[in-house]
Automatic annotation (TrEMBL):
Residues 16-115 form the Cyclic nucleotide-binding domain. InterPro entries: cNMP-bd_dom (IPR000595), cNMP-bd_dom_sf (IPR018490), RmlC-like_jellyroll (IPR014710). It comes from Flavihumibacter solisilvae. CDD domains: CAP_ED (cd00038). It comes from the Bacteria. This is Catabolite gene activator protein. SUPFAM superfamilies: cAMP-binding domain-like. It holds the Pfam family cNMP_binding.
Length: 191
């Protein structure tokens, strides 16, 4: 079934009855997007949370000089979104697009609010998800402020082992905060 990965991730944290699973799945929207297709654009309002079933997305900002700064990659099994836009229903500061053709499970905000009311276990699930995300973002911030580029690259490799050989070096460089030329030079020195 197309939602097996999603249910597996949820079941790792909370137990649901078959009726609760069926209700939850009835609230999800399925969407396919093509490689390089924009899913959320800066200035739009994020109206749903998104789980990646297949493919890969990237969450990023573009600075005033036109440089892309990747905050997160979202391979299968990952959630992605501009959380500030989603929570406050205000214009997004971030962009999301597909690195590869992707399949998504989308839960619109009103549907998620209804799920919380009807299935309290989901509040626990999303609290755990939020706590883990906050811890990960704090660690990423500390790493970006204090680690040299080679250590940030090693951390990237640990976090995204399936993406190391798949992503263009330009995207990896953007994620770790260096130029593609610097990353290429650094990798040649390590080899």
């Amino acid at each position: 079934m197309k939602y097996d990965l999603l249910l597996e991730k949820i079941s790792a944290q909370v137990k649901l009855s078959e009726e609760e699973k069926a209700f939850f799945l009835s609230r999800i929207q399925y969407k396919k997007i093509k490689r390089k297709q924009l899913y959320l654009q800066e200035g739009d309002v994020s109206r749903a949370i998104t789980f990646v079933l297949s493919g890969c997305l990237k969450l990023y900002s573009i600075d005033r000089n036109g440089f892309e700064h990747i905050l997160q990659f979202a391979p299968p099994g990952w959630w992605v979104g501009d959380m500030k836009s989603y929570i406050y229903q205000e214009p997004a500061l971030l962009n999301i697009d597909a690195i590869y053709d992707s399949e998504l499970a989308i839960i619109p905000k009103p549907e998620l609010d209804d799920i919380y009311t009807r299935i309290p276990a989901f509040e626990r699930f999303f609290r755990i998800l939020a706590e883990n995300a906050i811890a990960a973002y704090q660690q990423r911030l500390i790493n970006n402020l204090s680690l040299p580029a080679k250590d940030r690259y090693s951390t990237f490799c640990e976090l995204y082992p399936t993406l190391i050989m798949q992503l263009p070096q330009k995207m990896i460089a953007s994620y770790i905060g260096v130029t593609p030329e610097f990353l290429s030079k650094m990798l040649k020195q390590q080899a």
